[in-house]
Amino acid sequence: MVTTETAERMVGVLGKLSRALRSSSHRWDRLDVGLRRNDLTVLRRLQRHGEQRMSDLADAQCVTASVISRQVAALEHDGLVERRSDPADARVGLIRLSELGRTRLEQVTRRYTAFVRSAFADWDDADAARTADLIGQLADRVVSDLEGHLDIDLHSAAPAPAAPATPTLDRTSERIRTS
């Protein structure tokens, strides 16, 4: 069982990591990679999972249909994704990575991978792999536990019914409490 002290330390470390990632994404935008972090997430999902419905992309991004629609429209305008009708249901559009999108994603991935390798050059590969595994487990657990404890579905575009108690952050102890 994780102690309160360790949990509080994790909250602080995760906050620091979140701020660092947000900061680095802004720096990457300024370095003219031409793609925002959210764009990269959509392109990576299409690369890994292939052609998808817009609703599947929205669920994966934890955003509404209108948000993903605007994002996909911008990516389509830039020639990075292609849209076609679903042969099983012509009312539904399928989105796939274009060749230009695949090429750009590979370029950005190579550049970002080189940055990460440089940043962790003094780490042992086994330690880095174990850290990646632990961060992946942590992300999965946070999503799973938030859905269960806060009575929300982070993958749904529709808000869940309000829970009887409202979670708030007590800034003095950085613990979530119910009011």
UniProtKB/TrEMBL annotation:
Domain of life: Bacteria
Family matches, as InterPro entries: HTH_MarR-typ (IPR000835), MarR/SlyA-like (IPR039422), WH-like_DNA-bd_sf (IPR036388), WH_DNA-bd_sf (IPR036390)
Start and end residues of each HTH marR-type domain: 7-140
Molecular function in Gene Ontology: DNA-binding transcription factor activity
Pfam families the UniProt entry points to: MarR
GO biological process, any: response to stress
UniProt biased composition (Low complexity): 157-168
Region called Disordered, residue ranges: 157-179
Stored PANTHER family: MARR-FAMILY TRANSCRIPTIONAL REGULATOR (PTHR33164:SF57), TRANSCRIPTIONAL REGULATOR, MARR FAMILY (PTHR33164)
Protein name as annotated: MarR family transcriptional regulator
Organism: Mumia zhuanghuii
